[in-house]
Specification:
The structure is a single chain. By secondary structure, this protein is mainly β. It is about 0% helix and about 50% strand. It has no helices and 16 strands. It has a 14-stranded mixed β-sheet with strand order 1-2-3-4-5-6-7-8-9-12-13-14-15-16, with no helix packed on it. A two-stranded antiparallel sheet has the order 10-11. A hairpin with a 5-residue loop joins strand 5 and strand 6.
């Protein structure tokens, strides 16, 4: 059975859609809740809840859509820079996209990276960070040494494939279609 409720009295929780079974001591199996975000009645969010199949207990929050359109699966999404949209998965994975993306837009696939309101990439947790970016037909890979949660990240670009197919590793100025610079490099041709 589906039940809808609303609370217009000014509380933080303003409406629910809940699904129930007809048996068991805790019949609610799933719900979607509309709530006020940050105590501001003009900012709302939706939270999605499901039960994990164990007896007893209320449904657990599985997904949150915040007032800026950022979505967290298994986590409440962080406050991302207002020019970007973000999908966070679990504690440390995210997909970040320029909000008004056009033909020259970009998308980042990140681990342990948050793009904050100030426009800085910061560590989610105390650990290493990685970023893969697609922008203007180019693919870029970045890494960062372990840093402290909340601190600004200093990324190093490790590899790039340009829109013309040039592959670059360890150099900002390629001299051939495949340009790898560094020590201990082994290359071979054939089978």
């Amino acid at each position: 059975a589906l039940r809808a409720t609303a609370d217009l009295s000014g509380t933080a929780r303003i409406g629910d859609l809940a699904w129930y079974t007809n048996h068991g001591s805790t019949p609610q199996v799933a719900s979607i809740q509309g709530t006020v975000q940050n105590g501001n009645e003009n900012e709302g969010r939706l939270t999605f809840h499901t039960r994990n199949g164990e007896a007893g207990g209320a449904p657990l929050t599985r997904m949150t859509l915040n007032n800026r359109g950022n979505l967290g699966i298994g986590v409440t999404p962080d406050e991302t820079n207002t020019n970007y949209d973000c999908l966070q998965v679990g504690g440390n994975a995210s997909i970040l996209s320029f909000g008004t993306q056009g033909a020259s837009g970009e998308v980042d696939f990140n681990h342990n990276v948050h793009y904050n309101q100030a426009g800085n990439y910061v560590y989610q947790s105390t650990d290493e960070a990685t970023r893969y970016r697609q922008v203007s037909g180019t693919h870029q890979w970045f890494t960062a040494a372990s840093g402290t949660a909340g601190n600004t990240i200093s990324f190093t670009e490790r590899m790039r494939i340009t829109s013309d197919g040039t592959t670059i590793g360890g150099s900002a100025a390629p001299q051939n279609t495949l340009h790898v610079q560094g020590t201990g490099i082994t290359m071979s041709e054939g089978d």
